[in-house]
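Example 9 (inverse folding). The structure is encoded as follows.
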């Protein structure tokens, strides 16, 4: 089966996990891992037989075979990388909160963004909570939405910690732009518990039309849609409707491709990014 080549910038935990997910893709072919030093991630990719480089974005920009590039660096780095990738004709999957391109949550708005060249994957919290906010909003019209993403401290690497402000700002904005809330707020909690706990996301909403049946059906439908590309996504507390207040709690168990299963926060954004690229690649290949 014909596949379309992909490269990854950033050989850290996210980039390494992405590599294994791309290897399982139906329509993507893992081609190159690039960083700026000869790191363990670079050695790991080389050991699997892939091309590697330590010239950062230039390595993928100069490789004519690559179509999709996953940028697993940082928000600041992607601001530098984005115009280079665009000039080189690459399609970027931005794993950082830089938000150069439009936010994308596969099950909510990918079909409206197929002509873009820089897809922002929001944040791990955004991928976990925006679908639920969207589902509540389409059923009941959300006046105010608030989410709390609780992740294991062990699954929050230096990139996540360096981008905490961007995380809260980007996630909150996505709850409005994609989720449909009139007003929004996002909070992230790093849980130091040992053994580590799975990612848990609490979604609160104040709604204008509190129809419990419609809300429950809408939320259950969107959960099934997310599970199509993130099998470890599941409700921990089903929708609770109390007057005009709606509460939903979902947890994310990672697939364990490279990262431990408690790292659902990293797993869900990676699964979402590969789902986006895989669907775009299928379209390019003329596959339904």
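The amino acid assigned to each position is listed next.
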């Amino acid at each position: 089966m014909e596949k379309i080549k992909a490269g990854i910038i950033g050989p850290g935990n996210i980039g390494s996990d992405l590599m294994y997910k791309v290897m399982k893709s139906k329509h993507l072919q893992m081609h190159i891992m690039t960083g700026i030093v000869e790191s363990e991630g670079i050695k790991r990719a080389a050991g699997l037989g892939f091309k590697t480089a330590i010239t950062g974005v230039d390595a993928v920009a100069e490789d004519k075979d690559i179509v999709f590039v996953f940028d697993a660096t940082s928000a600041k780095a992607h601001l530098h990388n984005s115009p280079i990738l665009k000039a080189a004709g690459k399609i970027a999957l931005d794993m950082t909160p830089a938000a150069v391109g439009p936010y994308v949550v596969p099950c909510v708005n990918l079909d409206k963004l197929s002509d873009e060249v820089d897809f922002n994957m929001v944040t791990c919290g955004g991928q976990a909570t925006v679908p639920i906010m969207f589902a509540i909003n389409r059923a009941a019209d959300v006046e105010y939405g608030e989410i709390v993403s609780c992740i294991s401290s062990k699954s929050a690497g230096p990139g996540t910690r360096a981008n905490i402000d961007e995380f809260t700002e980007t996630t909150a904005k996505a709850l409005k732009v994609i989720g449909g809330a009139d007003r929004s707020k996002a909070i992230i909690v790093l849980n130091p518990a040992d053994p580590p706990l799975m990612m848990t996301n609490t979604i609160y909403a104040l709604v204008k039309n509190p129809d419990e049946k419609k809300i429950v059906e809408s939320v259950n439908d969107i959960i099934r849609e997310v599970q199509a590309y993130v099998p470890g996504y599941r409700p921990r507390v089903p929708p609770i409707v109390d007057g005009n207040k709606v509460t939903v709690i979902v947890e994310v168990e990672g697939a364990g491709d490279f990262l431990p299963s408690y790292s659902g926060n990293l797993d869900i954004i990676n699964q979402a990014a590969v789902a986006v690229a895989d669907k775009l690649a299928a379209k390019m290949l003329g596959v339904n």
